[in-house]
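User: Hi! Is it possible to get a structure for several chains at once, not just one? Here's what I have:
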Amino acid sequence: MKYTEMSKAQLEAEQKELLAQYEKIKAQHLKLDMSRGKPGSEQLDLSQGMLTVLKTKEDLISESGIDCRNYGVLDGLPEMKRLIAELVQAKEEQVFIGGNSSLNLMYTIIANAWIYGICGEKPWSQQGEIQFLCPVPGYDRHFKITESLGIRMIPIPLRPDGPDMDIVESYVNQDPSIKGIWCVPQYSNPAGYSYSDQVVRRMAALTPAAPDFRIFWDNAYVIHHLDFEDHDAILNIIDECEKAGHPDLVYEFVSTSKMVFPGNGVSALITSTTNMADIKRIMDTETIGFDKINQLQHVRFFHDKAGIVSHMKQHAAIIRPRFETIWQHFSVLGELGIASWTTPKGGYFLSLYTLPGCAKRTAALCKEVGVILTPAGASYPYGKDPEDHHIRIAPTYPSTEELKTACQVLVICARLAALEALLR
Amino acid sequence: MKYTEMSKAQLEAEQKELLAQYEKIKAQHLKLDMSRGKPGSEQLDLSQGMLTVLKTKEDLISESGIDCRNYGVLDGLPEMKRLIAELVQAKEEQVFIGGNSSLNLMYTIIANAWIYGICGEKPWSQQGEIQFLCPVPGYDRHFKITESLGIRMIPIPLRPDGPDMDIVESYVNQDPSIKGIWCVPQYSNPAGYSYSDQVVRRMAALTPAAPDFRIFWDNAYVIHHLDFEDHDAILNIIDECEKAGHPDLVYEFVSTSKMVFPGNGVSALITSTTNMADIKRIMDTETIGFDKINQLQHVRFFHDKAGIVSHMKQHAAIIRPRFETIWQHFSVLGELGIASWTTPKGGYFLSLYTLPGCAKRTAALCKEVGVILTPAGASYPYGKDPEDHHIRIAPTYPSTEELKTACQVLVICARLAALEALLR
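Assistant: Yes, the chains can be modeled jointly so their relative placement is included. Here is the combined structure:
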């Protein structure tokens, strides 16, 4: 029986029963963290071999004879560029290899646009108020970057097939103050949605009013399927932009952080020749170069895309059951008519939608008994979920047992929050 | 006999003789690079053990139980902070561990000042024309950073005991548009000068007109002595600033790039509590965190400062003879009265001073026969050496044999350039 169909007395009885359970949970003094998309230790074990692929002097010489121990090579080892190029189906010369953090690479590109301007255009900092489109729910760390620079963020509804392109087009094609859009095109953070071919093509076909508008295509989960027999696949944005005659429209980012050891991964930017020259020119002032030994470790560990795929299948085998655990626990919320959630085929997150006005309260109730969720609202610009109904769920980090406990707690808290709302 | 004492006929005879030698060199089709301060491969071999200190899962747990394979810890592993703190005699909480490039850390701090402002002050980008003091000769990559931001650079004479502090004080204490000074306080790049105690104390005692003035103290060669029995030692700037009542005046930078494998080192910022909080707040937007595995590798390889010292002694044993080779070759230039040079007790460079107006020509003559030097002028803001007399010499990278050849060529070219000038 759905909560909305229950009488007040029935709701009150339910509340009494759940509060008793809640008190018992509180007595357990739990300390569980479901807040961030960190791999679990079982996943980390998969990459242990990374540490032993390079041992001797000879191991540290690249295929073209570069001594990777020394300074030099700003834009990445050729073999690392080739590996990324193969992964995203781009050309080697379209790839720039960065440091250990793709978020930092994105920040750097945006800060450079802010300070120096893109491809000879005026610096963003000198163009008055500028704006970014932010499909929501989205990645809090993206929003934090644009917020820190005072770039106004406009939420755009993210549908299961991608951002609402009618709205995107009307903004981008008409308003020169719109300088960018944050996209996680495959298994979006947090909903887990993947952009349809039509959305990608419309994205590539944008005719921005601003010459320095760019799509920030954070392909964070490029090969992070839960099931390699049944997964999403998105069009190649670099190709589509070229075909549409707008090769400079997009910066694509990928990272190996969630393939190997996070913090010890490699980030990459994939973009057009023109953008690449612009970026290299500026980056040449900002650093001597990135960590080539780490790049070489990647190449020697993975060899090629097939190596990455076989590695990621092992990740999938660990992660998939965790998503399934969550869905099983959530099913009661569906039966009670008080929540819906997404069921992505990859990535690191899913979205839980409570009744309107119940997300913050649910998270607060969880926190009170020691279960930390991503702060409700975090997936929206300025932390403001106008409907207060979204909670980002990160299944990977807790152990299987902890995850089950956390789900039980979360379900009880979501029910209590719903009851409070319905009884108000 | 000195060139200046020779008759025209004698000079012409000398020139004829040297030109013949020069033509013979040209026929050898040399290809030697003395342009950058890269360690030689013998030095790189010293750090081979870095690659095998971490093997098992257990190896990757920090002393406080952090799994270094995963995300987290923005400001560095406690044991890495402790190692740097011991090295520079600071407190652990004054240390921020960055990525693989201290140049990038300096750039980031300056770019943050540019965009966000320092400790609540107006962003540098919104303060009209701002300026940096640049002791000369100095490090070209420092100057490139300030130049890229359009920060006006004012050359300050660098004496054997440090920058001319009368000039520094008169600028800094009176002009609020002066926002920083670039310092390499020990074994300066390129002259190899170390700041005297008096200079360090006067630096710490500055009372800047601008509240957001900072000393950029690039202690790049903190432990890079040529001889551990006879070396320079500078005062601790962090302590001196505290004593002077100006704890926030300085950002000190160090890096392990020239201890271990360049590009795979660790950078660090040492600064006051107030500056640290300001920086962490901003950095928290810019990245998830740096490479903790690399940090752990450092700690397990070096253990403590004593470990670094014993390692650096091995570097010294390799580098010292190279400096000596150069000085031996240069002695003829001294006898001819056409050059002087510095004789640092550490670092990676020395300065060669030709007759006025002869540096560019000397470098050009070298280039024509395949010996690449740092572009003459590079050690001055905007690449402009007003006297055209300075050449940066980098002894470490070529093999011993190559270095000898390069020195022979350089000496002949310096003589030819001097003769041209004297015969003009």
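Residues 50 and 297 of chain B are 6 Å apart (CA to CA). The radius of gyration of chain B is 23 Å.

User: Great, thank you!
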